[in-house]
Structure formats: C-alpha cells, structure tokens
Amino acid sequence: MSYLVLARKWRPQIFEEVVGQRTITQTLQNAIVQRRVAHAFLFAGARGVGKTSTARILAKALNCEKGPNLNPCNQCIHCKEITEGHSIDVIEIDGASNRGVEEIRELRENVRYSPAKSRYKIYIIDEVHMLTREAFNALLKTLEEPPPHIIFIFATTEPHKIPATILSRCQRYDFKRIPLKEIFNTLKQIAEKEGVQISPRSLMLIAREAEGSMRDAQSLLDQVISYGGKEIRDEDVEEILGVIDQKILYETIEAIADQDPQRCIEIVQHLYHYGFDIQYYCRELLQYLRNLILIKVSSEPEELLDLDGEELEGLKRQAEKFQFEHLDHLFHLLLKGEQEIVQSTFPRIMLEMTLIRMATLRSLLPIDEIIEKLERMGGEKDKGETFKKESSQEMVQTQAKDSPLYKESLKEIGTRDPIPSREGHQGVPISEEGKKLESAPPFEEETWKELLNFTRGKNPILGSFLSFGTPLHLDGERVEIGFEKDSFHYERILEKPYRNQLESICQEFFNKKIKVIVSPLGEGGKEKTDPTAQKTSPSFRKEISTLRNDEHLMIQEALRLFNGKIVEK
Questions:
Q1: With contact defined as beta carbons under 8 Å apart, do 312 and 336 qualify?
Q2: Which of 60, 162, 73 is nearest to 119 (CA)?
C-alpha cells in the first residue's frame, strides 16, 4: 500500500475536526438541522484552512444514509465513496484546468439529470476564480435557478476575481487563517498518535512557519519526520526548514540595545557562514521588532501575539530597554535597509551597514519631553532667570564689554534719547530747531538684550528672527531695527502677522504705544534710513553680529539640552 501523507491521513471527517473555523461549521450544521441549506455556497480563504475539507463534510452530511444530519456517519456507502473521492453524485472539478465555456456548458447539461443514488448531486469547483468570463456567464442562469437536487460549492483563494453577478447568487463564507496555538495543538496530537518525539519548541517553529495554514503545517511535519525519524532534534527542524533561531534575533536586539556594533557584525558573519537567507533574516527581525512595538503600545499584548508564555516574557523584558520612538525608528531603519538589500549586489555588506546604523542610533526623546524642555527654556528667559551653565552668548558679551573695541564704540555713540524703562519712563526729545536739550544718558545696550529675551519668552520664533536684526534707533517713541536686505529674516519680519506681533510685544515691553520700523541694511552693512536717525556704531553692530552666529543662545542651549550637534548638508 502506498504511503498516505499526514495532510490526507489526518484530514477532518466531521465538522468538529475542522480547526479554527467554528463559526462557519456551526452555521452549516444549523442550516442542515433547520432544512435551510442554500443551493450555492462560496468558501473563500487562504490555502490550507479547510475550504475543500468542509465542502466534502457538507456533501457527506447531506447525502448520508442517516441524514441529513449534524455530522456524517462516515460508515455508509455514500460517506465512504465521498471520502475516497469516487462518488458519482459528488463531482469535484478543478477550476484551473476546466475553465473554458465548453466545460461549463457540459456541466449545465448534466445538472438536468437527477442524482444516481444519493439525495443531492453536488458540484465542488475548486479555484473557481480561474474560470473565464464566458464560462461564468454560461453558469449564471443555472446558478440562479438550479434544479432542486443540485447544490454548488465553490472554493477560492481569490474571491475578488469572481464577478459580482456570481457572488450575489451564493452564500459566502470567509475562512480565516488558523491561529498559531490551534495549529500547535493539532500538530502535537498528530505527533503523539504517530509516535514521534519532538519538542514543543520545534512544533512551535513548524506552526509559525506554516503562517496559518494547517495543510502546510502537516506537510512540514511530514518533511521533518522524513529527515529526523521518530526522534527529532531542534537542530534538525532548524536545518530542514531553514528558519532563523529566535536566539539569533534576541541577540541582535540585545546588541542594538547595548549599542554594540561589533556584536552585530559577528551575527552577520554567523548567518553568512551557515548559509542563512539574509532577506529572510531581515523579515524575521522586522517581525521581532513589530512584536516589541506591540508590547509597548498594548496593555494586553498576549491577545495580539501568538507566543508562548516564556517567549512573551523575554520580549517584555527586552522591550523595557527601549522607548517607543526608538523602536519605531529602528523599525523604519531596518525596513529601508531590507529594501536596499534586495536591490544590492552586496547584500551582506548592506546588512552589516544597516545593523551598524541601528546599533549606533541614539535614544530619541519623546516629543512631549522636548516640548516641555523648550517651554521651560522660554519660561526661564521670560522671568530673567539664568541657566545653570553660562551660555556661550553671555560669555561673549562679558568678554566684549571688557574689550577696547566695545569701550571705543560707546564713545562713538554720543548723546541719545533716554530709553524708557519697563515702567514707561519718558525721555527728553531732541528738538530739530536746535532748542536747548537736556543731556541724555548714553545708549543702553542692555535694553536691546532685555527686549530680545522678552520677545523670545512671548514668541520664540519671532525672538529668533529679531536676534538677527541690528538696533538702529531706540527711544520712547520709536524702535527701528535693521536687517540685511533680501535676507530670510528680513522678509519674514515684514509679514503682517510677525509685524503685528512685534508691535504688540514692544508696546507691552515699553508699557506704551511704540512705533516699530523695520529697515533694510544696504551693501556693506550700511543701513538705509533717515540721516537724522540715531544709529549704533559699526563696532557695536559687530559685537551683536558675533553674538547671533554660532554662539547664539537658543541654539547652544538646545544643543546642550538634547545632546545634539550642528550638521551641514
């Protein structure tokens, strides 16, 4: 007698033996009991999930000598003939090889005849989506109004290819992929009945490799038994299936968590030495990262992950080493790297570079933490508090005050209108007719600095723009600021929203209505403004220009807070 493969030997013979499709089998059993069996069924789903097996069980239940009943007896002549596949009243047709209109016309002629010895004549058409459009059209009328003794059962893996006119004439049942745990339990029962010694870990590897298909899982188990005999080692399963050991994936993530690129290179060398498929390894590592992400975002990850308890606990411990943002970045780095590996003629090198990038990636701060730190920066500036470490800008300003250049610039400034204080001190205006003037104190550079800090506290973006300007005139009536002509900051500050905000902030700062003027600076840094306007000296503008370059306070403080660096591209 020829050998019978496990997939055929352990094929379900009653509805309860169909694994993972209890809703469908229960509905069909109820329809049989209530005598509400439709004349056409469509069973849709992935390969190996029980579509054809369920169709045969339904045919036996309807034609059983003791039926129609909840389950076939599998003892009468009708049940045995259907099980063995040579019943003249249950006709199985392969839609891929009988897809033409002539075959369907022949079928249409035969449905007029009554069953030879059974209760129903049942047509089971597998891969029905392979029929041509003309064949479907030829089937339409018969399918809509078949003789009372005819039942059609269609099976397909691609229901979207079936015309809507056919779908509307069938009761559709969608078969789901079988859960990992149910495949594992079924394989365990088969191994026990076959007298095969195999570890739960190996059975889990086979079940996972089947990807929801019971037939694929049984075929893989058959293959493993042929290779390893009755006593199967874990190494045998890994070798025959070519799967990646979960320990390798675990060690890869550990190396990434420890920022150990050398260990990543050693793992790639191990994969290459033992001939593992690099693309397969990338897909498995992506799945592993996906599991870690689900653990981070789900309160009950065991409901989403088909993993045993020990493996799930290991993943949970590993997930604690990462922030969600870090895992998300790692996932996208690997996804991009996998695409590069597929297209590259040097897949090993591309995998090494990808893992090195992942292992050297710094942990990312959550966006809410970044916002909180930025708000804290703005609050400290608004209150006039100093940072814990003196910023580079303050250091430059301190050194500038002691420099001869700064002292000389103060002498060049001359007499200026007094700058009103935050309480609104009114200065003495200069008469254009040459009237007698009261002497005014020298120009206060600190007022400009206070205005900058006040603006940053109110609007950090506007404050950043303003820091690139040069104070040309400051008194109780007018604030004039110069910007380099055609510069980005000059164009932005001229926009109406920013102009309005600047005027509002200046009025709040000086506690009175202030006219704000934004002027362009000409070539060589010369301002284009009223010749009678009071100007700051070139030396002072040079001091300010120095302060807003690389030593800019906001930039330096942001780099310090987020441990960053400036990258030129």
A1: no
A2: 60
